[in-house]
Write a structure and sequence with these properties.
The chain has about 350 residues and is of the alpha/beta class. The protein is built from ten helices and eleven strands. The strands form two sheets. Strands 1, 2, 4, 5, 6, 9, 10 and 11 form an eight-stranded mixed beta sheet that branches. Strands 3-8-7 form a three-stranded parallel beta sheet. Bound molecules: zinc ion.
């Protein structure tokens, strides 16, 4: 054997040993390399590949709350979308800092706006699961809960045009033992949270940012929960990423080791739902051009936003412009942040305007 061949063999043995060692330390292993980023951007410090076999849980409260992360490491997660009015500006801000996040998708939202979902995936973010219609699975029966999980998976997969990551987050973090068992059986990881932006309680981006930073200062690391249907997050994410960078936090991007197969009976249901939405769209062609999708007749027009207490003046969210308008045609933003009322087609949310995630 030549010296060069011996060196090659040695390197490959060391590499194999490193993989084995990492595999015995944690389920989440550094997998692929982080993408190259422009100088000065926050970037992705580490890509963690998660093996969802057996349905492991990550995030608190759980038996191993910080198994995934080292000190000063954060995972960015966005729930409840896609909602293009807020999702797209968030995607822009993430791109600017060259960071990748995980989006936990509500199936019926995905069918209503597959373009934004596919755009999110095309930008390199992880597409994960957040049920079909955001019901509390610890308050409905096992059969209905299973349908929420499986129809959500089928609808998200259908809208995405490719398999989603086998990562699930319980709506409202409302876990049930039956559905925990279901996730384990289906090899879907249960991704909870460590840090809550509480963006659903405020329209003020500064309040949202302070919520995150104060919890991070206490815990030192964590899976952070945002919602890409909330104006405080859409308006505050850029400044938050800047503060994370300034304070030395590092972004970890979680990616799946494998993907998950859908179940045929729920695929058929998802296709029926998609067809129903297409028919609704064709009867309202103008609505298709708006920033949000058309409402199905009889569904509530908007979230019943609670009256929020007066907050300190803040930088206005820069997401007030509907995407259907070109930037040049947009009116100058008002001096005070307007009340943003995203239309949703999810009646279960209307009865629970708070109490997210
Ligand atoms: Zn949610």
């Amino acid at each position: 054997m030549t010296p060069a061949a011996r060196r090659t063999l040695l390197f490959s043995m060391i590499g194999a040993l490193a993989v084995i060692t990492a595999g015995t330390q944690a389920r989440a292993n550094p997998a692929t390399e982080a993408p190259a980023c422009a100088a000065g951007t926050l970037g992705v410090a580490r890509v963690a590949e998660i093996d969802a076999t057996g349905g492991p849980k990550f995030g608190a409260p759980g038996p191993e709350p910080f198994e995934l992360l080292q000190d000063k490491e954060v995972v960015l997660t966005f729930d409840d979308g896609p909602m293009r009015r807020f999702t797209r500006p968030i995607l822009e801000a993430l791109d600017e800092e060259c960071v990748k996040a995980t989006f936990f998708i509500v199936g019926r939202m995905a069918l209503s706006d597959p373009d934004t979902l596919r755009d999110t995936a095309a930008r390199g973010h992880t597409i994960a699961l957040h049920s079909w219609s955001h019901k509390r699975l610890d308050r409905i029966g096992a059969a209905a809960s299973k349908q929420e999980i499986e129809l959500g998976l089928s609808a998200t997969t259908l809208a995405l045009g490719q398999p989603a990551a086998p990562f699930f987050r319980f709506p409202y973090l409302g876990e049930s033992s039956a559905m925990r068992a279901h996730l384990k059986k289906r090899d879907i990881a249960n991704i909870a949270i460590d840090v809550d932006s509480r963006d659903f309680l405020t329209r003020n981006p500064t309040v949202m940012r302070k919520n995150v930073m104060s919890q991070l200062a206490q815990k030192g690391r964590g899976i952070i929960l945002f919602h890409d249907i909330q104006p405080s997050t859409a308006g505050g994410i850029r400044a938050l990423l800047g503060e994370l960078k300034a304070k030395g936090y590092k972004v970890v991007h979680i990616v799946p080791k494998g993907h998950i197969a859908t179940l045929p009976e729920f695929d058929a249901m998802a296709e029926r739902e998609a067809k129903r939405r297409k028919i609704a769209l064709s009867s309202q062609p103008l609505a298709n051009r708006s920033a949000v999708w058309p409402m199905t007749p009889g569904e509530p027009e908007s979230l019943p936003w609670v009256n929020l207490p007066a907050e300190e003046p803040v930088a206005r969210p820069h997401v007030v412009r509907p995407v259907s308008q070109s930037p040049a045609a947009s009116p100058a933003p008002p001096a005070v942040a307007p009340t943003l009322r995203p239309s949703v087609n999810d009646d279960s949310w209307a009865t629970n305007p708070l109490g997210r995630p």
